[in-house]
Write the structure tokens for this entry.
Amino acid sequence: MRVELMLNGSRRALEVEPGEMLAFALRREGLFGVKIGCGEGDCGACTVLLDGEPVNSCLVLAARADGHAVTTIEGLGTVHEPHPIQRAFAEEGAVQCGYCIPGSILSTSALLASNPHPSDQEILGALDGNLCRCTGYVKKLVAIRRVVEEADHER
Amino acid sequence: MLGNLREVVRPASVAEAVERMAAAGGALRPIAGGTATSVFRSREVQGVLDLWPLPLRFVRRDGDGLRIGATATFGDLVRSDAVRGFAGGALAEAAGRAASTTLRNLITVGGNLAGLYPWSDLPPVLLVLGARAEIAGPAGPELTVEELVAHHPSRRLGHHSLLTGVVVPEPPPSSATAFLKQGESAFDYGLASVATWVELDGAVCRGCRVALGSVEPRCRLLPEVESVVVNQALDGERAAAAGRLAADAVRPAADARASEGYRRQLVSVLVARALLEAARRAGGGGR
């Protein structure tokens, strides 16, 4: 079945199976920043933004994206032009194995869009769906605080 | 991949949704957040009825109370000032204690109630607030949440009726709710959860409701506890007595998460604490 959506800011049409999950449909499109971890909504590696909200794309039918906007990590920044959150994560050492990072960064981006000055508690709360088993959350916290400070500095 | 699915139906209206369900006779299941994937893996299910296109994602407070559409997400409840400020805030607390941020953006009020699991977090709060379920189809137009969960809601709704939302009546002034949940981790299902509603006249309790989740196979009200508390000063001793009575009144499930005895102990402690917290809020000491 045909699904029309806004994918990383561009209008796209995808051909998907009725029972296909969004995470797999996106990877088929070459968006490999969408990671498959547990496949059942526990780990958050497959997090994408659906109409700006972070969701587990392994639980969302691809058909459901019809008429909606989906953002993956590829829509946020590139290797040559990283998003400020990506730059801060890299420079603060918040990335070790990297598997949870696309999801963690998308969750951060959704948090900062609605709450530009989050408390530490709010930052950790926003990442509670993105399990990280190697770096941990302290370096992420440091990186996100830095993004907030830099954004304030630029204003 | 849900390999059994042959179609995803996207209805234009609630009426169309109910018609399609009735015609399919169980082969077409309503889907919203989709977090309960096992429901849709059954071979009997050949298609899903995607509820997102329907205008059921809303939360608003009007003269009658709070109206919440079936596809409002737990994230919507947590972010809603109307919900956070309603009756001491237990609806927002219950929604906020479920799973994770990303899952709360998928889990819906309708799915949590109609799909009723032992660990569903919201129904106990709906029970203590005397909420009503709005239903399209032969089982409607309305049931109390208490009636809906007396058996599993799927028995009431069948394959031909659709839960479209809940109405939570405006509680009397000087009353408030509280919600407490104990799990092994913040992410895990509850081992036990308790919702309370308390109405005060000075220090004296004039009304009280207590509901439990995650303890028995289905959530339920505990009317036997109310008599211990109503028309009494609700202090620590009285709350502890109510907790002990609640622990005696339940038949907790034993599973890999907790033994029967541990659940009973949790019920005793959580009921006492949740009564005191609701009383604190009702007395103006809370939100």
